[in-house]
Amino acid sequence: MKQFKITSPDEAMRPQIQEKIDNLNKPKGSLGRLEELAMQVCLIQQTLSPSLAHPCHLLLGGDHGIEREGVSVSPREVTWQQMINFTRGGGGVNMFCRQHGFHLRIVDVGVDYDLSHIDGIIDRKIARGTGNFLHEPAMTEEQFDEAVAIGADLVDECVKEGCRVLCIGEMGIANTSPSSIWMHLFCHIPLKDCIGAGAGLNSEGIRHKYEVLSQALANYQHDNPLAYFGGFEMIAAVGAMLRAAEQHLVILVDGFIMTACALAAIHLEPKSKDYMIFTHCGDESGHQLMLEAMQVKPLLKLGLRLGEGTGALCAFPIVDSAVRMMNEMNNFQNAAITKYF
């Protein structure tokens, strides 16, 4: 796998950052979570005047062999249909990117359809979907390395444009299945507590999904669970997160699937967690458990389960408010207000 040199943010600035936060003309601690976010962003960027310049959103698409086992209510053709819809500006991700000024890149990493002729889709296809991990590894080690490198390269392109904050989303029918397995393996949570309805399974569908994933785990004999169970879009997201941490970007982590990808990135490089802001707890069963196991607090809980990175995009204004607090709020001395603590 591509090697990343990720260092934790230098803590030497923390007292200076805290002093600036405490001297803004407000009661000490009165802006709560915004103050925590401001501290994190300032440490990431090693500055008292942070910036969220040129926000970028990567929308990564890929299909999953496990979909053939009926673990999703949605058929796999929805993946390529939605990818084309995104190029026309008609998806939830498009709306939120427009609203918050994110530059959107739509990337085919492994969709089971020829999208190479579609304007607006970046063709980085590794294969037309992964293998069915009930019977075989989802991908080879070479494909795994390629997916990681694709994610890293996409981040490099964003950085060249001046990006300081990155959001990642996914499109891939059945990708809650590998996410549930990663959660089970890395958080040591019983599999039944990691499996939910995905795009809308009923109780019988959830039972079937549990049986399929249980058998897949029983068949598993491999030393890389990321490659064995993951999707191309998910491994590319892991690579993107690792490169973004290496480049000291602010990483906005979306819902269940992207939280599982963050979990995988942290498994590979624990220091990458310092660069992540966990933005949303979705409706997928087990997401709250995974966040708790990772000891992180999401900014929002809106009941979203769309994916695409939409929860992270919705949370962006909160992070923006924390940055504006640092850059635009006056302090006691300049405002000629008595500091009363």
Instruction: Tell me about the largest β-sheet.
Output: 6 strands, parallel
Q: What percent of the residues sit in helical stretches (DSSP H or I)? A: 40-55%
Number of strands: 6
Give average pLDDT, whole number.
95
Tally the helices: 13
Helix-strand sequence: HHEHHEEHEHHHHEHEHHH
Uncertain residue segments? none
Percent of residues in beta strands? Answer: 5-15%
- Report the structural category: alpha/beta
Write the layout of secondary structure elements.
Elements: H1 14-23, H2 32-45, E1 56-62, H3 77-87, H4 92-100, E2 103-110, E3 121-123, H5 141-160, E4 165-171, H6 176-187, H7 203-219, H8 225-229, H9 232-246, E5 250-253, H10 256-268, E6 276-278, H11 287-294, H12 310-328, H13 332-335
Parallel strand pairs: 1-2, 1-4, 2-3, 4-5, 5-6
Explain what this protein looks like in three dimensions.
By secondary structure, this protein is α/β, with parallel strands linked by helices. Helix content is 46%, strand content 9%. It has 13 helices and six strands. α4 runs parallel beside α12, α5 (141-160) packs across α9 (232-246) and α6 packs across α10 (256-268). The model has no long low-confidence stretch (mean pLDDT 95).
